[in-house]
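As noted in the main text, all predictions were made from sequence alone. Below is one such record, for Phosphonoacetaldehyde hydrolase.
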Amino acid sequence: MKKIECVILDWAGTAVDYGCFAPVSAFIESFRTLGLEVSAAETRAHMGLTKIEEIRALFRIDHVNQAFREKYGRDYNENDIQSCYTEFQRLLFSTLRNYSGPIAHVVETIDTLRGMGILIGSTTGYTQEMMDIVIPSAAEQGYKVDNCVTSDNLPAGRPAPYMIYKNMCDLAIPSRFSVLKYGDTISDIKEGVNAGVWSVGVILGSNELGLTEEEVQNMPEEELKARMLEVRYRMYAAGAHYVVDSIKELPALINAINTRMNNE
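Prediction:
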């Protein structure tokens, strides 16, 4: 019988840090130290990459590299990227523990999945040093995974598939058809697609929606529905097999996928 044996979750915006705000603020402030402005929307457009690769992507934005040239009289180089990344890390490490609380319904849903015999893996755009803060803090608040893989010592981070493959090796999952990747960014979706596993996006709490819990609760229903629909379209356009509103839908979706696989 074919079935999902492993769910691999992202961290910020998927399992912890509702709205994925910790890295957004650190990106914005680290560029400001160089006298440069990047918007929250620009940082979110590249979220899910490793953080150094996101900084490279932000430097490549036309108005950013033009502003750098006007301010410093030259083009930016790798030293500037590394300097910005150093400041980003300093800012992120100072707040990271405060953004490690599980998103609503994550803990109980993971318990349900474990009751279904499913292993819980994870991938992230954070480095291992960053996860050394997030993992124990999240565990103190009830969220634990069976395996966490960062891109440290791998050929590349997302959207490349290597972190998913490493999870499969670590957890002894022999078939990609038994793996479901679950995440909140376009890079997450593409990571799953590139690995050839089931790729599922989540909307509420996601980087793509980019709202706080309070903003979601107070937003007029029709406006919220419209924004959620835009996210759903983007995720499907990126190759998602399914998109759910929240993690509460995941156990039922997995049962449906299991049925689909065994009826094909």
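The chain is about 50% helix and 10% strand. The longest strand covers residues 179-183. These features were considered when defining construct boundaries for the mutagenesis experiments described in Section 2.9.
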